Amino acid sequence: MADTAVSRPSAGSFVVPFRRWTGVGLPTLALLVMLAIIFWIRPAAMSYFGFTLLFKLAIPLVFAALAQMLVVMLGDIDLANGAFVGLITCVSAVYLADQPLVAIAIYLLLIASYAGVGLLIHTRQLPSIVVTLGLSFIWLGLAVMVLPAPGGQAPAWLSAFVGWRPPLLPLPLWLAAAAALAAHLVVSRSSIGAVLRGAGANPRAVERSGWSVLAIRVCVYAASGFLAILAGLLLTGLTTSGDANIAPAYTLLGVGAVILGGGAFTGGIVSPVGTVIGAMTLALAGSLLSFLQVPSTWQIGSQGFILFLVLAGRVLLGEKPS
Amino acid sequence: MNKVLEPARPPSQAHCAAHPLVGMRGVGKSYGPVRALEAVDFDLASNEIVGLVGHNGAGKSTLMNILAGVVQRTDGDFMLEGTPVARWSAAEAHRHGIRCVFQELSLCANLSPAENTRIVHRGLRGLGWKKRAGALITAALDRIFPGHGIDPHLVVSNLSIAERQMVEIARAYTSTNEPIRCVILDEPTSALGHTATEQLLAHIRRAASDGIASILITHRLNEILAVCNRAVVMVDGGIVAVRSTKGLSRSELVELTGHVEAPRDRQKKDRSTPGRPIVDHRTELAQDKVVLAAPGEIVGFAGLDGHGQRERLRDIYKTMKGGQTPVAYVAGDRGTEGVFGLWSIADNLTIRSLKTLRRGGLISDEASRTLASTWAKKLQVKAPSIDTPILSLSGGNQQKVLFARALASDAAVVFLDDPMRGVDVGTKQEVYRLIRSEAEKGRCFVWYTTELEELTNCDRIYVFREGRAVVELADEAIETGRILEASFGGGNG
Amino acid sequence: MTTRRLPLPAPWTYGFLFALAMWIATTAYAGIGSAGATLSSAIVFGAFSVVVGTGQMFVIASGPGNIDLSIPSVLTLSAYVSMTAMGGRDDLVLVGLLAALAVGAAAGALNFLAITLLRLPPIIATLAWSFIFQSFAFNFGGEATLKPPSLLSQFAVWRVAGIQVMPLAVILVTVAAAVALRRSVWGRQLLAVGQSEPAAAFAGIPVKRVRLTAYVLCSTMAGLAAFLLAGFTGGAALNMGDAYLLESIAVVVLGGTSIAGGQANAVGIWGAALFFNLMATMLNTFGIEVGVRLVLTGVLIILVVAVVPRGRTG
Q1: Is residue B295 within 8 Å of B442, Cβ to Cβ?
Q2: What are C50-107's pLDDT values in tens digits?
Q3: pTM for the model
Q4: Which class in CATH covers the domain with range C11-307?
Q5: Minimal CA–CA distance to C213: which of C99, C62, C67?
Q6: Which residue of A107, A294, B263, C143 is most buried, as measured by CB atoms within 10 A?
Q7: CA distances from C49 to A138, A274, B466, C1, C281 (A)
Q8: Do A209 and B125 touch (CB under 8 A)?
Q9: Is C311 near chain B, with CB under 8 Å?
Q10: Going from the N-terminus, what domains does chain B have, and what CATH number goes with each?
Q11: Tell me, what's the ipTM?
């Protein structure tokens, strides 16, 4: 009997690991190539201390990118992510050291407002791109109100934490690995993760199976807000001060990391491990360019070029378009 | 591993006889002033198979959506085993063992069959849930579609449409800690091949003897006559007849839906001079026939679903698009490949002909309206005016607009991509007549269809198997037996 | 979709209504004497937003996910190239205009090539190009501001019988865009592609060509805005495009164009642009501090999208 299903050769056994590999593998490859170039130019960088320096600034971006990834997973986009991280640095630098309870209350309020944004977007069926566009003005405005000019002081414990030297690996690598593992377990492996990704791809089907997509969206937005707060805290610790305009680039770099890591805007298709590595790749690209002594006027352009180069790899390896 | 797969115990016979599994009294649904469902009475016993028949827009889907808890009824009473139910939702329905296979595929394409199974079963969680879900769906697939060859951990977007449909059907028959008592199947076979369809029908019968009732909605009336105990006929939002299928004939059933089936009138065309072909398409594959079609000819693509007919049709269209011969394409998947949902009938109808509607560089409103109303009338599109939004039409009428778009254009060759899927009998007959009369005027049609009886409208057909056009049949040779034989590779294949 | 048929004004008129409210509020606060000046300055500044917004509208209308984030850097780069080409000479003004438009057109084509050849989401493709264009602008102009020829500066503020010519010219651009959307073959095809790409392909529409045109037009409009803006503000400067990243998107959406594609409104962009500029003036006049002003701007954007009825959801 030559029925469809029977006669078709099962392509799965080969295709699946291959496609999984390109999601995580490409940014990994890019990361390794960049590291190799850096170490070749300056072998001294190949040390505990060198790694710490190279990846120090990647860590806040990793968390911001994961926050963005959760929103992209639902088929939305958060254009206010960078402004929000800036706001967190301001709040942390002003309140966290002296009035920690006020700071925590503000964080909780901000998580609640992220959830509220999810609620608004879902119930009014608004395009997330416009709502978060408006939000970026609000976060920036609030940040300027909290801290009109860059300054403030990060609490000592926060600066101490980001300066901590754990055994075996430098702190940035521990943090990146922990973030990647935790997000992978929740989003890609757990049974609730399947429902979340399903809600991003086919909300109607998930709704029909008796789940509340509204509740899912509210929770995922709140989680995204939480991760963005972590990003802001780490950034405050690194810079030891607050600045409303410190992180506008995080929005688009975060989106870039999600896509670089194998995610797609269609909803439901994201890879936490890929996103983390994508964020580290993009952050490292900046360091690489200064190591290569690319003139500062060409650095940002080269970053765009590297983005193209890595993404072009997907086409060459024949991955389906996202 | 089989422990979880046992179907829930059927309720005792005595209990059943006293109360039907589902009882609806005067259930209706209104959307504002629009009445989608009149007050209907509907019963279902726990070991019964009921066939639901009617045109598009007759209210079948509304009735079933109410039963599945997706749509809330606006009036009437709903009883489950004699107990009145006030609040009803998708989650409630699922908890009480009512499952639904919806007409449009409702799997999440980014997840695997195992993960899709998890979405409907809250019990599948904790360590090792993926393995359990995989075993659950594989067992259901093995039971219903033996030899399916589907990997439960492969992402659904890599599966063919037929395979996705199988997964969706199998998923409805999986059970963890919740019972299954009734499965609603809305056009389940339209995407399935011949073998899979037979397997499904056999399974529905088996399930009924195990106490799982089924409600089958299909336009393929033979399937209803073959497996159902009762046929329920709906017209214009109400139930007009409930008949036992014993001794019921196909034409009686068609008549009940308000249509008289036209006898197959295969006119002898005088095709002494077939003319020079305007379609001449060959591929690199060995033993793949050259597809030829001349003006005035209706050429059909037959074979089991998914054997390369659609791909070849699209290939030919893409090669010819923008070339010397003007071509048009009527898509079968209306929702995603056919209609422009924001537009009116007129806008949808004229989009293929814009260039001819220009007066002095800009599109003339008057010329567009004339074209649109002429063709809307010719195809008897049922709508208040040509400015009616296309999405407010029934599926059959939307399909007519798509036909009108192609026929109103300058196309010499019209490609039909299984356009009659899910269209009611009356509309079909009207369109067949139109296709034949257009062919007589010299248009050429290349027609891919999954419905065997449609092929009798063709002058010549190519039968496809495993991605190739392997057999060519003409005129009297076009006949069900020979098509099936060629599809399965028997005889001279 | 829910079609509530309440007698509400069409979505694209909301920008105008809000703008009117802002104008009245400002006038009430600052006195009637300032009303004319407030409006005319809003019209002039609004005209620049309208030019970039109209381009962005074509791209957004071409389908879900289509958006051009390279507008600010294309604008800056075009301005530098154009100012360099003219070198401050009045007789080369036309050359400068052509240079600005050419840079824009080339940038649009490059954006689209990256989207199709590398199969990238438009957000990513236009973002990566914007980095590259920005580097080019850095190297072209450095930190210096290049001065425009005096003829161009005069045109930017030229008045005939008290009416400014430049905004009038932009109104003509809007009219042309509106007619193109309704009555030209390309405009209809663009909206069809925006609603459903596969359906458009099967209706015989050259999808790629239609989209390419949208991207090229968008960047060309950015080039045109660069030329006019440089004339108005006294030259090309590195940060001259920054404000237009978010604003170009905001005016399109508030102007009644669906972010999901397939439906566009050119006239509404004027309402949204006036609303934006009058709001800024109003908050300025009230003497509100910058943080609060930003918050109010954000709240109003969200409020407008949340309140305005839409035919279809994004």
Answers
A1: yes
A2: 999 999 999 999 998 899 999 999 999 999 999 999 888 889 999 999 999 999 999 9
A3: 0.83
A4: mainly alpha
A5: C62
A6: A107
A7: 21, 38, 57, 32, 15
A8: no
A9: yes
A10: 2-256 (3.40.50.300), 279-488 (3.40.50.300)
A11: 0.86
